[in-house]
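User: Sorry, folds how?
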Amino acid sequence: MFSWPLPPHKADPQNDLPLYLALTLFQPVGKRSKTLFSYQKNYYNHTGSFEQGRICIFGEDLKITKETKPQQPTDTEPLGSGNKCSLAIKLAAVLVIFVSLLYLLLLYKPARYNPLDIGYDGQVSKYLTHELLPQLHNGAQRGEPFDLVVTQKGINDAIARAKWPKRYSGIIFSAPEVLFLPDTIVLMGTTVLKRVQVVITIELNPSLNERGLLNLHMAKIKAGVMNITPLVKVVAGRMYADRLAVVDVDPGDLRAQIAASLFNDEPFDPIFEIKDIFDGEERKVRVEKITLTPEKLTVRLAPARER
């Protein structure tokens, strides 16, 4: 209902009986106002009705105002239903954006990842047979410290000629590549997660402590562009501990020492046995220094002596 002032008039008992009764009963004085029953006159049929409102009397003029009340929610429109619906839509939109972003981050392929696609032909890499292994055997035979130089191009050729993909603990791994950076070895490859190919990147920082023990510190692990280092370390550490609990592992086994260094940062004595290709004699060498430069790894080896 709208509020409006009624036109000036006098209360006539014959023509405006309801109005006359209202003025007579309530007897407002001057410009005072009181919350009572207000009278609204119908100018079409000269009938009236009383409604709850406010009466204001100014002399002989009657101003009738109806106070409005807030609309109450009905049974078909629960209180706050609009806000709840809007909130649900916003949450759904945020979830869709998050999942899409996560998917894109996992599918990200680093620009530096360019594995060789040679294919397995059953042939051993000439880099191994003509360069790397002769360096290693000739140096070990001399019985003196020597440097073993491994090139990034050569080691990737040797790796690419192996039979891929390979399965490790239920994970399929293929298309590996090795990068040599200053103080860092980067291992990259492709794995399959829920039928989606994801590039895995592992960064290692090998170092020797003051006692000459080698630690293969796993600095970073990425799936696509996502850093998953803490998660992988926790899971891999538990798997390694569970394996030690059920399998009798020789602490001196080189593979066990490497695993402990990777997953638990446990340094080990870097002694390797090299079998002579001519007389079959095994010679032990120790890693004394590791130098990493772009596309090259230099390992200083010396005859191992008992400590």
Observations:
- The CA atoms of residues 270 and 287 lie 6 Å apart.
- The first helix runs from residue 17 to 26.
- The two ends are 103 Å apart (CA to CA).
- The chain has two domains: 4-65, 126-303.
